[in-house]
Input
Amino acid sequence: MSDLYDEQAPASAELFDRARRVVPGGVNSPVRAFRSVGGTPRFMVRGTGCFLYDADDRRYVDLVSSWGPLILGHAHPAVITALTDAAAHGTSFGTPTPGEVTLAEEIVARTPVESVRLVNSGTEATMSALRLARGATGRDKVIKFAGCYHGHVDGLLAAAGSGVATLGLPDSPGVPSGTTADTIVLPYNDIAAVREAFASHGDAIACVITEAAAGNMGVIPGRNDFNKALYEECHAHGALLILDEVMTGFRVAAGGVADRADLYTYGKVMGGGLPAAAFGGRTDLMEQLAPSGPVYQAGTLSGNPLACAAGLATLRQCTDEVYTRLDETAARLKQLASEALTRAGVKHRVSSAGNMFSVFFTEGPVNDYDDARRQDTAAYAAFFHEMLRRGVYLPPSSFEAWFVSAALTDEAMDVIAEALPPAAEAAASAAS
Ligand SMILES: Cc1ncc(COP(=O)(O)O)c(C=O)c1O
Output
Protein backbone atom coordinates (compact mmCIF):
# COMPACT_ATOMS: atom_id res chain seq x y z
CA MET A 1 0.00 0.00 0.00
CA SER A 2 1.70 3.20 -1.12
CA ASP A 3 -0.51 5.84 0.44
CA LEU A 4 0.12 5.33 4.14
CA TYR A 5 -1.35 8.02 6.34
CA ASP A 6 1.41 9.99 8.01
CA GLU A 7 1.40 10.61 11.75
CA GLN A 8 0.47 14.23 11.25
CA ALA A 9 -3.24 14.56 10.84
CA PRO A 10 -3.31 18.33 10.36
CA ALA A 11 -7.05 18.94 10.55
CA SER A 12 -7.43 16.70 13.61
CA ALA A 13 -4.38 18.31 15.23
CA GLU A 14 -5.87 21.76 14.75
CA LEU A 15 -9.21 20.66 16.17
CA PHE A 16 -7.44 19.03 19.12
CA ASP A 17 -5.60 22.31 19.84
CA ARG A 18 -8.90 24.18 19.80
CA ALA A 19 -10.56 21.51 21.92
CA ARG A 20 -7.86 21.57 24.58
CA ARG A 21 -8.49 25.26 25.11
CA VAL A 22 -12.14 24.74 25.99
CA VAL A 23 -12.61 21.07 26.93
CA PRO A 24 -10.63 19.28 29.68
CA GLY A 25 -7.96 17.20 27.96
CA GLY A 26 -9.63 18.10 24.66
CA VAL A 27 -12.12 15.23 24.91
CA ASN A 28 -15.48 14.45 26.45
CA SER A 29 -14.52 10.92 27.51
CA PRO A 30 -10.93 10.10 28.53
CA VAL A 31 -10.03 7.08 26.34
CA ARG A 32 -10.70 9.16 23.22
CA ALA A 33 -7.58 11.23 23.96
CA PHE A 34 -5.09 8.56 22.75
CA ARG A 35 -3.08 9.01 26.00
CA SER A 36 -2.02 5.37 26.25
CA VAL A 37 -1.06 5.02 22.59
CA GLY A 38 0.20 8.59 22.05
CA GLY A 39 -0.35 10.85 19.05
CA THR A 40 -3.23 12.95 17.87
CA PRO A 41 -6.74 11.66 18.39
CA ARG A 42 -8.59 11.56 15.10
CA PHE A 43 -11.61 13.83 14.91
CA MET A 44 -14.21 11.97 12.89
CA VAL A 45 -16.64 13.84 10.70
CA ARG A 46 -18.74 11.09 9.14
CA GLY A 47 -19.30 7.39 9.03
CA THR A 48 -20.92 5.10 6.54
CA GLY A 49 -21.19 1.32 6.89
CA CYS A 50 -17.95 0.03 8.37
CA PHE A 51 -15.96 3.13 7.44
CA LEU A 52 -15.17 6.29 9.38
CA TYR A 53 -13.76 9.47 7.79
CA ASP A 54 -11.67 11.93 9.76
CA ALA A 55 -11.32 15.70 9.42
CA ASP A 56 -8.47 15.16 6.92
CA ASP A 57 -10.87 13.01 4.89
CA ARG A 58 -8.92 9.84 5.61
CA ARG A 59 -10.91 6.66 5.59
CA TYR A 60 -10.63 4.03 8.33
CA VAL A 61 -12.17 0.60 8.77
CA ASP A 62 -13.89 1.03 12.12
CA LEU A 63 -13.27 -1.70 14.71
CA VAL A 64 -14.52 0.40 17.62
CA SER A 65 -18.12 0.93 16.47
CA SER A 66 -18.58 3.83 18.90
CA TRP A 67 -17.43 1.46 21.69
CA GLY A 68 -20.12 -1.07 20.84
CA PRO A 69 -23.41 0.61 19.93
CA LEU A 70 -22.97 0.63 16.13
CA ILE A 71 -23.48 -3.08 15.64
CA LEU A 72 -25.02 -2.40 12.20
CA GLY A 73 -22.32 0.07 11.15
CA HIS A 74 -22.62 3.81 10.60
CA ALA A 75 -25.69 5.53 9.22
CA HIS A 76 -27.64 2.32 8.67
CA PRO A 77 -30.58 3.30 6.42
CA ALA A 78 -33.23 1.74 8.72
CA VAL A 79 -31.86 3.63 11.73
CA ILE A 80 -31.55 6.94 9.90
CA THR A 81 -35.07 6.65 8.52
CA ALA A 82 -36.51 5.84 11.96
CA LEU A 83 -34.57 8.73 13.45
CA THR A 84 -35.55 11.33 10.90
CA ASP A 85 -39.19 10.22 11.03
CA ALA A 86 -39.16 10.56 14.81
CA ALA A 87 -37.38 13.94 14.70
CA ALA A 88 -40.01 15.29 12.34
CA HIS A 89 -42.57 14.71 15.10
CA GLY A 90 -40.60 16.54 17.78
CA THR A 91 -37.58 15.76 19.92
CA SER A 92 -38.88 15.42 23.46
CA PHE A 93 -42.25 15.69 25.19
CA GLY A 94 -41.59 15.00 28.87
CA THR A 95 -44.57 12.64 28.80
CA PRO A 96 -44.90 8.92 28.20
CA THR A 97 -44.65 8.08 24.48
CA PRO A 98 -45.58 5.03 22.38
CA GLY A 99 -41.96 4.46 21.27
CA GLU A 100 -40.70 3.81 24.78
CA VAL A 101 -43.39 1.19 25.36
CA THR A 102 -42.44 -0.59 22.14
CA LEU A 103 -38.74 -0.47 23.01
CA ALA A 104 -39.44 -1.81 26.51
CA GLU A 105 -41.54 -4.61 25.00
CA GLU A 106 -38.71 -5.48 22.62
CA ILE A 107 -36.21 -5.59 25.50
CA VAL A 108 -38.52 -7.75 27.62
CA ALA A 109 -39.04 -10.12 24.66
CA ARG A 110 -35.29 -10.50 24.08
CA THR A 111 -33.93 -10.72 27.62
CA PRO A 112 -34.71 -12.32 30.99
CA VAL A 113 -36.17 -9.05 32.39
CA GLU A 114 -39.90 -8.74 33.07
CA SER A 115 -39.95 -5.00 33.60
CA VAL A 116 -37.54 -2.31 32.44
CA ARG A 117 -36.87 1.37 33.15
CA LEU A 118 -35.22 3.45 30.43
CA VAL A 119 -32.40 5.86 31.27
CA ASN A 120 -29.81 7.80 29.27
CA SER A 121 -26.45 6.17 29.89
CA GLY A 122 -24.92 2.95 31.14
CA THR A 123 -23.63 4.85 34.17
CA GLU A 124 -27.17 5.85 35.06
CA ALA A 125 -28.36 2.27 34.58
CA THR A 126 -25.82 0.73 36.98
CA MET A 127 -26.19 3.58 39.48
CA SER A 128 -29.95 3.08 39.54
CA ALA A 129 -29.76 -0.73 39.70
CA LEU A 130 -27.41 -0.40 42.65
CA ARG A 131 -29.80 1.94 44.44
CA LEU A 132 -32.68 -0.44 43.80
CA ALA A 133 -30.69 -3.42 45.09
CA ARG A 134 -29.82 -1.49 48.25
CA GLY A 135 -33.37 -0.26 48.66
CA ALA A 136 -34.83 -3.73 48.17
CA THR A 137 -32.47 -5.50 50.57
CA GLY A 138 -32.04 -2.72 53.12
CA ARG A 139 -28.29 -3.38 52.98
CA ASP A 140 -25.39 -1.14 51.90
CA LYS A 141 -22.41 -3.19 50.81
CA VAL A 142 -21.69 -4.12 47.22
CA ILE A 143 -19.16 -6.50 45.73
CA LYS A 144 -17.54 -5.54 42.44
CA PHE A 145 -14.62 -7.05 40.56
CA ALA A 146 -11.27 -5.41 39.84
CA GLY A 147 -11.03 -4.35 36.20
CA CYS A 148 -14.80 -4.36 35.66
CA TYR A 149 -16.15 -0.96 34.69
CA HIS A 150 -19.72 0.01 35.35
CA GLY A 151 -19.56 3.65 34.36
CA HIS A 152 -18.37 6.48 36.57
CA VAL A 153 -20.69 5.78 39.51
CA ASP A 154 -18.95 6.98 42.72
CA GLY A 155 -19.23 3.71 44.60
CA LEU A 156 -18.09 1.65 41.62
CA LEU A 157 -15.01 3.69 40.75
CA ALA A 158 -12.81 1.34 42.71
CA ALA A 159 -10.24 -0.67 40.73
CA ALA A 160 -12.28 0.15 37.63
CA GLY A 161 -11.42 -0.86 34.07
CA SER A 162 -11.85 1.09 30.81
CA GLY A 163 -10.41 4.63 30.94
CA VAL A 164 -9.31 4.22 34.55
CA ALA A 165 -7.25 1.20 33.51
CA THR A 166 -6.09 2.78 30.25
CA LEU A 167 -4.75 5.84 32.02
CA GLY A 168 -3.40 3.81 34.94
CA LEU A 169 -5.32 6.05 37.34
CA PRO A 170 -5.62 5.33 41.02
CA ASP A 171 -9.20 5.41 42.23
CA SER A 172 -10.65 8.80 41.47
CA PRO A 173 -10.24 11.80 43.75
CA GLY A 174 -13.63 13.28 44.50
CA VAL A 175 -15.17 9.97 45.44
CA PRO A 176 -15.99 10.24 49.16
CA SER A 177 -14.25 7.53 51.18
CA GLY A 178 -17.61 6.86 52.84
CA THR A 179 -19.00 5.85 49.46
CA THR A 180 -16.34 3.30 48.58
CA ALA A 181 -16.20 2.06 52.18
CA ASP A 182 -19.23 -0.01 51.22
CA THR A 183 -17.58 -1.37 48.06
CA ILE A 184 -15.76 -4.67 48.34
CA VAL A 185 -13.40 -5.21 45.39
CA LEU A 186 -12.47 -8.79 44.54
CA PRO A 187 -10.51 -10.45 41.72
CA TYR A 188 -12.64 -11.40 38.70
CA ASN A 189 -13.23 -15.13 38.24
CA ASP A 190 -12.32 -15.83 41.89
CA ILE A 191 -15.38 -17.47 43.42
CA ALA A 192 -13.42 -18.48 46.54
CA ALA A 193 -12.85 -14.78 47.29
CA VAL A 194 -16.58 -14.15 46.87
CA ARG A 195 -17.41 -16.93 49.32
CA GLU A 196 -14.98 -15.50 51.85
CA ALA A 197 -16.49 -12.02 51.53
CA PHE A 198 -19.97 -13.41 52.11
CA ALA A 199 -18.69 -15.42 55.06
CA SER A 200 -17.35 -12.21 56.65
CA HIS A 201 -20.01 -9.64 55.63
CA GLY A 202 -22.92 -11.81 54.48
CA ASP A 203 -25.79 -9.97 56.11
CA ALA A 204 -24.52 -6.53 55.03
CA ILE A 205 -24.08 -7.28 51.31
CA ALA A 206 -26.88 -5.89 49.15
CA CYS A 207 -25.58 -7.15 45.84
CA VAL A 208 -22.81 -8.35 43.62
CA ILE A 209 -22.38 -6.44 40.37
CA THR A 210 -20.42 -7.99 37.54
CA GLU A 211 -20.02 -7.44 33.83
CA ALA A 212 -21.83 -10.35 32.17
CA ALA A 213 -18.47 -11.03 30.54
CA ALA A 214 -15.69 -8.62 31.39
CA GLY A 215 -14.97 -6.25 28.51
CA ASN A 216 -13.35 -3.25 30.15
CA MET A 217 -9.98 -4.75 31.08
CA GLY A 218 -9.89 -6.29 27.64
CA VAL A 219 -12.31 -9.14 27.11
CA ILE A 220 -12.21 -11.86 29.76
CA PRO A 221 -15.09 -14.30 29.92
CA GLY A 222 -16.31 -15.71 33.21
CA ARG A 223 -14.68 -19.10 33.83
CA ASN A 224 -16.26 -22.19 35.38
CA ASP A 225 -19.81 -20.83 35.32
CA PHE A 226 -18.73 -17.79 37.29
CA ASN A 227 -22.05 -15.95 36.89
CA LYS A 228 -24.01 -19.01 37.98
CA ALA A 229 -21.84 -19.43 41.06
CA LEU A 230 -22.30 -15.73 41.86
CA TYR A 231 -26.07 -16.07 41.62
CA GLU A 232 -26.06 -19.07 43.96
CA GLU A 233 -23.79 -17.35 46.46
CA CYS A 234 -25.92 -14.19 46.43
CA HIS A 235 -29.08 -16.15 46.98
CA ALA A 236 -27.62 -18.23 49.79
CA HIS A 237 -27.08 -14.91 51.63
CA GLY A 238 -30.16 -12.87 50.74
CA ALA A 239 -28.23 -10.64 48.30
CA LEU A 240 -29.02 -9.77 44.68
CA LEU A 241 -26.95 -10.28 41.54
CA ILE A 242 -26.73 -7.40 39.05
CA LEU A 243 -25.53 -8.55 35.64
CA ASP A 244 -24.14 -5.55 33.78
CA GLU A 245 -24.91 -6.15 30.11
CA VAL A 246 -24.28 -2.60 28.95
CA MET A 247 -21.57 -3.94 26.65
CA THR A 248 -22.73 -7.50 26.01
CA GLY A 249 -26.48 -6.86 25.81
CA PHE A 250 -27.91 -7.31 22.29
CA ARG A 251 -24.32 -7.65 21.03
CA VAL A 252 -23.17 -11.17 21.76
CA ALA A 253 -26.64 -12.62 21.11
CA ALA A 254 -30.25 -11.49 20.67
CA GLY A 255 -30.53 -10.57 24.36
CA GLY A 256 -27.00 -10.74 25.67
CA VAL A 257 -25.20 -13.22 27.89
CA ALA A 258 -28.50 -13.51 29.77
CA ASP A 259 -27.22 -15.66 32.64
CA ARG A 260 -29.55 -15.82 35.62
CA ALA A 261 -29.56 -12.68 37.75
CA ASP A 262 -31.94 -10.41 39.68
CA LEU A 263 -31.26 -7.15 37.87
CA TYR A 264 -29.73 -6.44 34.47
CA THR A 265 -28.32 -3.26 32.98
CA TYR A 266 -28.24 -2.41 29.27
CA GLY A 267 -26.94 0.40 27.07
CA LYS A 268 -24.87 0.80 23.91
CA VAL A 269 -26.62 -1.33 21.18
CA MET A 270 -30.12 -0.65 22.54
CA GLY A 271 -29.69 3.07 21.78
CA GLY A 272 -28.53 2.54 18.19
CA GLY A 273 -25.89 5.27 18.64
CA LEU A 274 -28.12 7.63 20.62
CA PRO A 275 -28.07 8.05 24.40
CA ALA A 276 -30.32 5.31 25.73
CA ALA A 277 -29.79 2.70 28.40
CA ALA A 278 -31.93 0.65 30.75
CA PHE A 279 -32.10 -1.47 33.84
CA GLY A 280 -34.62 -4.19 34.50
CA GLY A 281 -35.47 -7.36 36.32
CA ARG A 282 -38.28 -9.18 38.03
CA THR A 283 -41.52 -7.21 38.27
CA ASP A 284 -41.66 -7.45 42.07
CA LEU A 285 -38.23 -5.83 42.32
CA MET A 286 -38.80 -3.20 39.65
CA GLU A 287 -42.13 -2.20 41.22
CA GLN A 288 -40.16 -0.92 44.19
CA LEU A 289 -39.18 2.03 42.01
CA ALA A 290 -41.10 5.32 42.17
CA PRO A 291 -43.92 5.94 41.41
CA SER A 292 -44.99 2.38 42.39
CA GLY A 293 -42.55 2.08 45.26
CA PRO A 294 -40.25 4.17 47.44
CA VAL A 295 -36.91 3.88 45.59
CA TYR A 296 -36.51 7.14 43.68
CA GLN A 297 -35.19 7.31 40.13
CA ALA A 298 -36.09 9.76 37.33
CA GLY A 299 -34.85 11.52 34.19
CA THR A 300 -35.89 14.55 32.10
CA LEU A 301 -34.91 12.89 28.82
CA SER A 302 -35.39 9.22 29.80
CA GLY A 303 -37.16 7.30 27.04
CA ASN A 304 -36.38 10.10 24.59
CA PRO A 305 -38.31 9.53 21.34
CA LEU A 306 -35.27 9.85 19.07
CA ALA A 307 -33.19 7.46 21.16
CA CYS A 308 -36.07 4.97 21.34
CA ALA A 309 -36.61 5.13 17.58
CA ALA A 310 -32.92 4.56 16.82
CA GLY A 311 -32.69 1.79 19.42
CA LEU A 312 -35.78 -0.01 18.24
CA ALA A 313 -34.76 0.19 14.57
CA THR A 314 -31.35 -1.23 15.52
CA LEU A 315 -32.74 -4.10 17.59
CA ARG A 316 -35.20 -5.03 14.86
CA GLN A 317 -32.31 -5.37 12.40
CA CYS A 318 -30.38 -7.58 14.85
CA THR A 319 -31.65 -10.91 13.56
CA ASP A 320 -30.15 -14.38 14.04
CA GLU A 321 -28.44 -13.96 10.64
CA VAL A 322 -26.78 -10.76 11.85
CA TYR A 323 -25.43 -12.50 14.97
CA THR A 324 -24.15 -15.40 12.87
CA ARG A 325 -22.40 -12.93 10.58
CA LEU A 326 -20.88 -11.04 13.52
CA ASP A 327 -19.58 -14.30 14.99
CA GLU A 328 -18.02 -15.33 11.66
CA THR A 329 -16.45 -11.93 11.14
CA ALA A 330 -15.01 -11.89 14.65
CA ALA A 331 -13.64 -15.42 14.24
CA ARG A 332 -11.92 -14.47 10.97
CA LEU A 333 -10.43 -11.31 12.45
CA LYS A 334 -9.12 -13.11 15.52
CA GLN A 335 -7.49 -15.69 13.30
CA LEU A 336 -5.88 -13.07 11.04
CA ALA A 337 -4.57 -11.06 14.01
CA SER A 338 -3.22 -14.09 15.78
CA GLU A 339 -1.51 -15.46 12.66
CA ALA A 340 0.19 -12.13 11.96
CA LEU A 341 1.39 -11.75 15.56
CA THR A 342 2.61 -15.35 15.74
CA ARG A 343 4.53 -14.91 12.50
CA ALA A 344 6.16 -11.76 13.87
CA GLY A 345 7.01 -13.57 17.12
CA VAL A 346 4.84 -11.32 19.32
CA LYS A 347 3.58 -12.81 22.58
CA HIS A 348 -0.15 -12.50 22.63
CA ARG A 349 -3.39 -14.05 23.80
CA VAL A 350 -6.69 -13.59 21.99
CA SER A 351 -9.56 -13.63 24.44
CA SER A 352 -13.23 -13.48 23.55
CA ALA A 353 -16.81 -13.53 24.69
CA GLY A 354 -18.91 -14.25 21.62
CA ASN A 355 -18.16 -11.68 18.91
CA MET A 356 -16.48 -9.34 21.43
CA PHE A 357 -12.76 -9.95 21.70
CA SER A 358 -9.45 -8.37 22.45
CA VAL A 359 -5.82 -9.18 21.87
CA PHE A 360 -3.69 -9.13 25.01
CA PHE A 361 -0.02 -8.54 24.34
CA THR A 362 1.05 -11.11 26.92
CA GLU A 363 1.49 -14.85 26.95
CA GLY A 364 -1.42 -15.36 29.29
CA PRO A 365 -3.47 -16.98 30.61
CA VAL A 366 -5.65 -13.93 31.24
CA ASN A 367 -8.31 -14.53 33.86
CA ASP A 368 -8.38 -11.29 35.81
CA TYR A 369 -7.18 -7.69 35.99
CA ASP A 370 -3.71 -8.58 37.31
CA ASP A 371 -3.19 -10.87 34.31
CA ALA A 372 -4.48 -8.18 31.93
CA ARG A 373 -2.09 -5.61 33.37
CA ARG A 374 0.89 -7.82 32.55
CA GLN A 375 0.52 -7.00 28.88
CA ASP A 376 3.06 -4.99 26.91
CA THR A 377 1.25 -1.71 26.32
CA ALA A 378 4.15 -0.25 24.30
CA ALA A 379 3.87 -3.13 21.83
CA TYR A 380 0.14 -2.46 21.54
CA ALA A 381 0.74 1.26 20.92
CA ALA A 382 3.10 0.46 18.03
CA PHE A 383 0.62 -2.06 16.64
CA PHE A 384 -2.25 0.43 16.96
CA HIS A 385 -0.40 3.21 15.12
CA GLU A 386 0.70 0.98 12.27
CA MET A 387 -2.90 -0.16 11.81
CA LEU A 388 -4.04 3.46 11.90
CA ARG A 389 -1.48 4.45 9.25
CA ARG A 390 -2.93 1.69 7.10
CA GLY A 391 -6.51 2.79 7.55
CA VAL A 392 -7.76 0.60 10.40
CA TYR A 393 -9.20 2.22 13.52
CA LEU A 394 -8.64 -0.01 16.57
CA PRO A 395 -9.47 0.90 20.17
CA PRO A 396 -6.78 3.35 21.33
CA SER A 397 -6.11 1.21 24.39
CA SER A 398 -5.12 -2.39 24.98
CA PHE A 399 -7.68 -2.61 27.79
CA GLU A 400 -10.67 -2.40 25.46
CA ALA A 401 -12.63 -4.77 23.26
CA TRP A 402 -12.53 -4.76 19.46
CA PHE A 403 -16.09 -4.33 18.24
CA VAL A 404 -17.09 -5.70 14.86
CA SER A 405 -20.13 -4.50 12.98
CA ALA A 406 -22.40 -6.37 10.59
CA ALA A 407 -21.41 -3.79 7.95
CA LEU A 408 -17.81 -5.04 7.54
CA THR A 409 -17.32 -5.72 3.83
CA ASP A 410 -14.88 -8.02 2.04
CA GLU A 411 -13.00 -4.91 0.95
CA ALA A 412 -12.66 -3.82 4.58
CA MET A 413 -11.49 -7.28 5.62
CA ASP A 414 -8.81 -7.07 2.89
CA VAL A 415 -7.62 -3.71 4.26
CA ILE A 416 -7.34 -5.26 7.72
CA ALA A 417 -5.62 -8.41 6.41
CA GLU A 418 -3.01 -6.29 4.62
CA ALA A 419 -2.42 -4.04 7.60
CA LEU A 420 -1.96 -6.77 10.20
CA PRO A 421 1.45 -8.21 9.19
CA PRO A 422 3.32 -4.84 9.19
CA ALA A 423 1.49 -3.86 12.39
CA ALA A 424 2.62 -7.12 14.00
CA GLU A 425 6.20 -6.34 12.88
CA ALA A 426 5.92 -2.90 14.47
CA ALA A 427 4.70 -4.51 17.69
CA ALA A 428 7.63 -6.94 17.59
CA SER A 429 10.10 -4.05 17.25
CA ALA A 430 8.53 -2.18 20.17
CA ALA A 431 8.09 -5.22 22.44
CA SER A 432 10.04 -5.11 25.68
C1 LIG B 1 -20.14 -2.83 31.18
C2 LIG B 1 -20.37 -1.35 31.19
N1 LIG B 1 -21.18 -0.82 32.12
C3 LIG B 1 -21.43 0.51 32.16
C4 LIG B 1 -20.84 1.37 31.26
C5 LIG B 1 -21.12 2.84 31.33
O1 LIG B 1 -21.87 3.21 30.23
P1 LIG B 1 -21.91 4.76 29.75
O2 LIG B 1 -20.55 5.04 29.19
O3 LIG B 1 -23.01 4.79 28.75
O4 LIG B 1 -22.21 5.57 30.97
C6 LIG B 1 -19.98 0.85 30.29
C7 LIG B 1 -19.31 1.74 29.33
O5 LIG B 1 -18.43 1.40 28.62
C8 LIG B 1 -19.75 -0.54 30.26
O6 LIG B 1 -18.95 -1.09 29.34
